[in-house]
Amino acid sequence: MLKKSKKIVKKPLVLAPPKSDDEGGDDDFNEKSHKKFLDGITSLTKTNHINKPTRTEISDAVGDEFHLTKKALYGKEAHDLTKGILDLLKTKSNHVKVAKEIQNTKRNKKVLKKKIEQSVSDKLQREVAYETAKKKLGRWDGIVAMNQSSEHQMFPVELESIHKDVLSEKPEKTIKSDLMEQMEIIEAKLNPRKPDDEIDERNLTKEEIIARRREMAYLKIRYQQKVAKFRQQKKIKSKNFRKHEKRKRQVLEKKEQELLEKTDPEALERKLESAERRRVLERASLKHKNTAKRSKNVKASQHNKEYQQELADQLALGRELTSHEKVEDSESDDGNDVEEDEDYDPFNPWVKVVNQMDKKIEESSANYRKYWNERNENEKKLDKYKKSIENETEKDELKNLKDLAFKTKNVRPDFDEELLETSGKPGVSGTTGVPDIKSGGEVSKIVPSNVAIDPNNFTEKIRKPTKTFDLKEMEQSESEEDEEENQRDTIAAAFEDDDIQADFEREQEDRKASATQELDLSMPGWGSWVSAKTINAPKRKRIVLKFEAEKDNRREGNKGNVIVNEGVNKSLKQHLVSDVPFPFKSVREYEASIRAPIGRSFVPESAFKALTRPAVITKKGKMIHAMDEEQLLRPDANYRRPTAVDKRIKALGK
Amino acid sequence: MKVKIISRNPDDYMRETKNELHKVKRNYDPDLHPMEATREYVRALNATKLERVFAKPFVGNLDGHRDGVSVFGKHPSHLSTLCSGAYNGEVRVWDLPSRQSTRNFIAHDGFVRGICYTNRGDRFITIGDDKAIKFWNAEKPEDEEDEEPINTILSRTSIHGISHHRKSNIYATSGEVCYIWDETRSEPLKTLKWGVDTLHSVSFNQVETSLLAACASDRSIIFYDQREVKPLRKVILTMKSNKLAWNPQQAFNFTVANEDFNLYTFDTRQLKNPIKIHYDHVSAVTDVDYSPTGKEFVTGSYDKTVRIYEIHKSHSREIYHTKRMQRVVCVGWSYDSKYVFSGSDEMNIRLWKAKAHEKLGVARPREKANFNYQEALKEKYAAHPQIRKIARHRHVPRHVYNAQNKMRKIKDKEQKKEGNIRKHSKPGTKPFVPAKRKTVIKEEV
Question: Do B46 and B77 reside in the same domain of the chain?
Fold first, then answer.
């Protein structure tokens, strides 16, 4: 058992000074006085030292039961604990060996660190787990960003692919040794096998065989379908259909010919010849003599001899023509030029007109040439300038970095605002209405571009500084001033006869004339019964009619010689946008997004389809599954979107 | 009588081969169409008006429960199947196209707290107030009286929520603690505990499949990893969260339905503040469910309305309500992203269209093109005041309208007061704290 170290350890230390050589000293030892002595010493320092406990007997319990020491017995301290024992052991010779052993272990072994508090360790564990989870979640960043930035998203996302490159994957364990492989290579060189198109079925995996069989089955089905279609089409008797087919064939042939003309003119010649032969045979076969519409008509009117005669003539003519046709063709080919034509008649008035026209063109062509030469030169200069600018921008790498940002092509206004929720009878609007259009500052007025100009106030229109941007303005901003002047001139020229200035002056005069006037209706002698000098005569109202002009409500700056029409757009105003909506930063940007039409009536069909494609496309009755890890792992090389063929093959498998 | 027929030369309008471009009979030169912008504006306005005319979202009503509907279970592979549990312990399986219940049985004593299908969809698991976890076959038994669970597990603690792993046969329950179970075992695989009374709901992440999160009664949201021994993190909000839904297309984002009338969308990696606060409800939000496209979510609230939000917007785009619909307890979004279900206190399950004005049934190509055009026009001219006004206008019940006014006033008052305090105190001592910063009280590690 353990005892307090006071007695055991301190005894030799404290008792050492009184211990004398003579034996009687032991008898003199007074316990009481000694304790008093010790108390006296302790009272000097006034602190109660409690020493480390020492073990006297072997015990299973680790650590001390008293827990009275102030210092912890872990780590370095624990190491120090052995110091006391070592000191003790060193005193006796038969313990030296043990002491050495202890010292060795002390030197070689590490002392365990103190266990961390449970709460702290939990916290650390959680932190680590959270960090790993965070990292795992981070893997999805790319794909999520891609989906967010893409203009269109299709759901459900299809990922499976039947064509997996199994052969290229190397097996983990190799059966053949390196030597065997080398031998095989040499053998292959010595007796080269013929390249075989057919893949050896033995080398294929089970899935590949299944896929191949499916593909074969699909091809067979396709073949059968084609056969059925061909049979069905053969039965169609519609003339229209045949005509259409024929035209189709002809167009294809023509295209082929064009291609051959460029690549292989000899083959073309051969082809044409054979076609010609076919045609001649066809015409000679007398197939068409009776089936033509005209001949049928003739047949119907058998008794009409005139008609019969006519038919016979026609047939004869036809025969004649067919016999000569080839010669004629070659003639017409040569006689393309008008000048060489034999029919050229110098007195023909029509031809004359043409010639005169030619002369006129020749005269004006000099001007044209001058114009075009200038223009070409200018264009060359512009190209050079553009190239120089491009080179500069390429050098500036920092600027090129900007291109890394996601590009959103089709920006649309994006509002995040409350619904306009009302209660009670429909039509009664709530308190939160639309932002007051009347009071709102007018940043822009979205006036439909290309508004027809009203001849009555065109001057005003031209002078008025618009904040909106016209497409034309943007395009022609370089030569803006000249353009403006030109436009003014042209408009002035267009309304030359109208004499707007005179109209305006007349209007102004009328306005002045209608300003306040007085009309004195008093007549001499009327209303005054006595002479004018009479003082006491009652004062009479003068009979005066006042014509007051209509009150002019116009603003100060608007009263001069220019009249600005202010109240023209009042009903239109409620349809105009007052602020630049969210993702846009300027009026110009926003107007650009509005300007381009998207409707079928303004853009071609393909553009219409592209512009109106919804951002999210879902299919009716198709499950949309959450994202899959396969989406993350998909390298573009091995996987591709399943094509229609793949899908059919897959369906066959089911 | 002579009949005149319209005859056209097919050469004018027919392509000679189908490989050729379509013949264009119209001149698209913009100079020839000076009024194109104006005409499109009018079309957009008309489209917006038509949208409101055709906005009839209510599809149908699933009638059959004899007590309030408490919970939904969506089948992972059948679009036409829906499972629902009620306050009286009854579970019904519905065939949605016919709007008939195909099965019904009493599964638990007291509330049915949760239903979830297994990942293969061959069976579903229900939990109730009686601490029992019951497994049922998804197939209807031949005889109705044979309606018996395949397996019943009695839990040691009460259970409030259940969620199934997307890929393996592991599921999690929440109650006093969070248990991770294996379908084949009757003892939980793991017990995840972090000193909380009750965990109301638990839900597995569908993308990063081992992650799950639970809402606790001490206003906190706790995250777990099914493979880890310890929970990951805890976030304490100002008020209790009722439900949590993970975004199926964005692995790291989730939304919680909170008791303080709002919803909060968080990024799991950055929990200091939500990335978006969704306002507009006028009472506690009870349930939330994501659209499978991950672009929108639907919420049900104690204010008797269902709202649909876009994830990146703080205000709802749609509100659904009917006169007879009471407190909405549970909502769901169908896996084809076309329909929304809501279960409410008055025993009915309602089926709504996710897009109120969408035409049901098959649309022919020309019709479809026209719808697309209308949508594009509405988007393009969304900023114009008339269109904005018409598109945003909704009729709401009086109590919602009044409550909203009240809330608006309260908010204004608080803002004003805060402004006044700031004005009369030393500059810099009362900094402006945005609402996002105020939501999270503490993030515990």
Answer: no
